[in-house]
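dude i think i finally got it to work??
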Amino acid sequence: MLLRFFRINDPYSLLGILVVLILISLPLFIDPVNITLDELKMFVLGEILNQGKSLYAEVLTNTPPLAAWISGWFDAIFGRSQRASHALSLIIIIIQLSFFTLILINSRAHHENTYLPGLIFGLLAFYSFDVISLSNELMASTMLLFVLNNLFKEIEFRIQRDEIVLNLGLYIGLASLFVFSYAVYLPGVIIIMAIFTRLSARKIFLVIFGFMLPHGFLMVIYYMKGNYSALIQNFYWANLNWQDESSMDASSILILCLVPALFLLLSFFMLNREARLTKYQSQLSQIMFLWVLLAIAEVAVSSSLKPHQLITCIPPLSYFISHYILLIRRKRLAEFTIWLLMISLISTMYLTRYNRINRVDYSNLFPKPSEHNQILEKRVLILGTDWGLFETNKMASGFFDWRLSHSIFTELDYFDNVVLLDKALRDDAPDIIIDEENKMQHVFRAIPELQELYRQDGNLYLRK
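look at this
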C-alpha cells in the first residue's frame, strides 16, 4: 500500500510525504530534546548580531557569514524558539526532497518516474534527531542539491553551456559560506567532470571563478568597511585551524548509520545483479557513488563529528535505496522492505534519543551544566567555555569564541587589542564577567578606568 502510493508519478505524493514526516516528527515537537550546543550558539549569535555589531570585527567567531546572518534573521523573527527552528528545518527538508525527486525525474535516473526517492529522502533525514534542527549543514546541503542538478545537466551531452559550469562553482562557493569545509566539493566536482565530460582549462577556470565570486564579493564588502583583516583572521584562517569540542565518538556515528549503510550495501548488490541501466543512468549511478565518497571526505576534513554532518549522504543514499526497492520484483517483498526501512530508522532515532541504546553517546552535543547556575537573566562575559550559562543569560561584548578571544586578553602589548577591549567593554558593558583563567587583572592594568566599574567576588567581576 505504502509503496504503491508513492511509486506512481503524481505530484500529490508530496502531500503524502509531508503527512508521513509530520507524523514521524510529532513526538519531537511534543517532547522536544534539550537545546543542543549548536542551537544555543545559533541563538546567542543571532542576539549579538541584532545589537548592531559587525561580524568578525566586533563579534569574534569563525561561524561562516551566511549561517551567521541567518541566525540574526531567525532571532529577529522567532527569538530562542527551538520549536520554530525544528519546524523550519522540517520545511527545508521537504523542499530538498521535493527538488531532489524532480531532479531524478527530469534526468530519467530510474526506469520509471516515481516519488519514492522523496519518501526515502525524508525517512533518512530521521536517522538522528539532531538532523531536524536549523544547522549550518542543513542550509548548506540545499546549495549542494543545486550543484547536483547542474552536474547532471553537464554530464548529459545534449546540454553544455558555460552558465551551467559557472553555476557549479557558484553554488559550491555559497555552500562554503554556510559550512567552510564544503569547499572540498570544488576539487571533487572538477574530478567528476574530468571523468564524465570533456574537461577543458576553460571549464576549470569557470568553476573556480564561480566558486570565488561569493568569496570575492564578501572580501570587497569587508575591505570597504575596513574590516578585511578581521574577516581573514576570524573566518578564513580560523576555519583552517579549528577543532570543535562538541564532537561525538566514531562508534556512536557508526551505530546511527548502521541501517542506512546496510540498505546501501543491499542496493549495490541489487544494482550490479539486476539493473539494466542506460549509459546515462549508469553514469548517474557512478556520480552518486562518488558523491558519497565526497560527503565522507568532507566529514573527514571538518573540525568535528556530529550526526547531522552526514546529511550530504542522504541524496545519493535515497537514489540507491529507491533503485533497490524498485528492482524488487515481488510486490509484497518490496512493500515489506520499505516498511522495514522506515521502522528501523524511526526506532533507531527514538531509541537513541531516549538513551535506550547506551553505546550511542549524545552528551557532547549538549552544553555542559554551568558552575554558575545561580546567575540568571544577566548580560555576561565569560573568559572561558562555560556555554551552559547562556541557556539562562545573554552574551555581552561580542567575545563569542574564546579561542579567538584568548589572544586579545593575553597579548595586551598590542595597542589594537587594548583599543578593542576598551571599546567592547564600554559600549556593551557586561553585568558580570566570569574570569576562569584570571585574565581580567591584566586587562585592568592596561585599562585602569575599567576596574572602577567592577568589584571582584572570587572569579566573578560584578558591575557596580
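The chain has 20 helices and five strands.
im so relieved honestly
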